[in-house]
Amino acid sequence: MLEKMSRLYAPTLKEDPTEADLASHKLLLRAGMIRKTASGLYSYLPLAWRSLEKIETIVREEMDSHGGQEVLLPVLTPAELWRESGRWDVYGPELMRVQDRHEREFALGPTHEETMTDLVNHELKSYKQLPQNLYQIQQKFRDELRPRFGLMRGREFIMKDAYSFDADEAGLKATYDQMYDAYDRIFKRCGLHCVPVAADSGQIGGSSSIEFMALAEYGEAAIVHCDQCGYAADEEAATAVIAVADGPATPDGEMVELDTPGAHTIEEVAALLGVDRSATRKSIALVNGVGEPVVAIVPGDHELNDVKASHAFGDYRLMTDEELESLGLVKGCIGPVGLPEGVLCVCDISLQQSLSWLVGANLPEKHLAGACPGRDFTPDEWLDLASAKAGDRCPECGAPLKEARGIEVGQIFQLGDKYSRALHATFLDQDGKERFFQMGCYGIGVTRTLAAVVEQSHDEAGIVWPVPVAPFEVEVLPLDVSDDLVWPAAQRLADELAALGVQTLLDDRKERAGVKFNDADLLGLPYQVVLGKRGVKNGTVELKDRADGERTDVPLEDVASQVA
Ligand code: ATP
Ligand code: MG
Ligand code: MG
Ligand code: MG
């Protein structure tokens, strides 16, 4: 493959665009790879498209070799399916809704759990046809509140989304583990340094989830991790959400009274705290008034019914004053410290009772540290208190946690029967019994992965492409295209490389050497072959490795064997 710079549509920019803060955003614009069409909407120019296709190929190869089968579903998804799952209302303004001429409602797919479940429903009838794992690579639409950082958070972006259907939980777990391996390989092959972290299941719901975070100084996601034991979690997942109630709870546990008058549902409590209850599996604790027990702790995805169930406190034990003191606590009131999925919230009720509840719930003592001064907190203060921070103790081993930032490039979920139940998607098991599919879903942000690669791999001069996702592998730079030695030598070399299967870009422009060097570094192809007059006369060229900047003089006839 040989491309000439003179005809390539790659409008480079000399200056940093003012609209961009992040290195990847700046460089993709400057290298003429992407252009903004409107807020959160980007066009991928030829160079970006070449890299995106390489990422997609890696994704396809790994999905196919880990049990996936590629399909392509419509982008436009009927409202009925979203209504069946309940997400038409729950998804909120992020869902882009459209109507056809008959006023039938649709959504531009932000994700395809419903559509994919509907696709297999009534087709997969027997356990013998399971498991199935279907994926697609497609544009997705989310009307993000703050589209920003170029390809990182677009309103339209390319995603690989996969959905698995298993007969039982063990099957789902096996498929999930397979996807974990596939993801690990995909990001490594893309040249990304990623860490898997425990995640919040978010809008999609479900029980177990891991995010793949590309570590980056300016990543949007905050992570806490432990060097001692390897524990790592999304800060959101490591956050306990606390609701404080200051009055008596209703007997059924569904209502609480806050400082504001009147009764509140969990949703209202969440709203008061500024938390989207539907978009979180964080725990909410409802705490009762003076003299009454703590009413309920609602771990993540439990429904209101579970609130009632948790009225039964189980075996808890009151802590002695000495025990309290040994935890550094005084009587009065304590505040929450980062809990992975746990909850800690105590206000003016019996401190001992609450603490002992928490001990009974097997929360490690370390989470009980940190006294609060016994005043009301604003919702922001509660959230701040509740999120895990550097120095908090690791829930697994107790060592101090560290903070890092990352870019969420992929996420895998064990959904269980959340969607199959909602959409009545069933199969017959070995005993002829009707059962709901055990589902998993698995996303990768293809365009975000491209941006993450640039974010991790660049210097002051420009992008430094890892070979597997570089738009081209080699750039041939004849410094003087009007020279009758240099130009023919460059053409011959470029042809030879292309014939060997090396993806080659030939800078055939009549530009000054300085301009060519700058553009070559900005574009960041892994190898540059520079042909100068003196060198070519002696039969040598300069081979530059973009990653380490090393230049070596190489005999012209050896170039192909060195880079191919
Ligand atoms: P985020 O937390 O960044 O909003 P998400 O958790 O909402 O992402 P998922 O629903 O898990 O995203 O979607 C799967 C993948 O799609 C994400 O891991 C991410 O790589 C990518 N993705 C999600 N939203 C966007 C977006 N607005 N622009 C580009 N890529 C995105
Ligand atoms: Mg999101
Ligand atoms: Mg997320
Ligand atoms: Mg996610």
From TrEMBL:
UniProt entry tagged with the keyword Cell inner membrane: no
Keyword Nucleotide-binding: yes
Entry's localization field: Cytoplasm
Keywords tagged on the record: Aminoacyl-tRNA synthetase, ATP-binding, Cytoplasm, Ligase, Nucleotide-binding, Protein biosynthesis
Reaction catalyzed: tRNA(Pro) + L-proline + ATP = L-prolyl-tRNA(Pro) + AMP + diphosphate
EC number: 6.1.1.15
GO molecular function list: proline-tRNA ligase activity
Transmembrane segments: none
Domain Aminoacyl-transfer RNA synthetases class-II family profile: 40-466
InterPro entries: aa-tRNA-synt_IIb, aa-tRNA-synth_II, aa-tRNA-synth_II/BPL/LPL, Anticodon-bd, Anticodon-bd_dom_sf, Pro-tRNA-ligase_IIa, Pro-tRNA-synth_IIa_bac-type, Pro-tRNA-Synthase_IIa_type1
HAMAP family (alphabetical): Pro_tRNA_synth_type1
Self-association and partners: Homodimer.
Family: Belongs to the class-II aminoacyl-tRNA synthetase family. ProS type 1 subfamily.
Entry text on domains: Consists of three domains: the N-terminal catalytic domain, the editing domain and the C-terminal anticodon-binding domain.
Function: Catalyzes the attachment of proline to tRNA(Pro) in a two-step reaction: proline is first activated by ATP to form Pro-AMP and then transferred to the acceptor end of tRNA(Pro). As ProRS can inadvertently accommodate and process non-cognate amino acids such as alanine and cysteine, to avoid such errors it has two additional distinct editing activities against alanine. One activity is designated as 'pretransfer' editing and involves the tRNA(Pro)-independent hydrolysis of activated Ala-AMP.
Protein name as catalogued: Proline--tRNA ligase
Organism field: Kribbibacterium absianum
Organism lineage: Bacteria, Bacillati, Actinomycetota, Coriobacteriia, Coriobacteriales
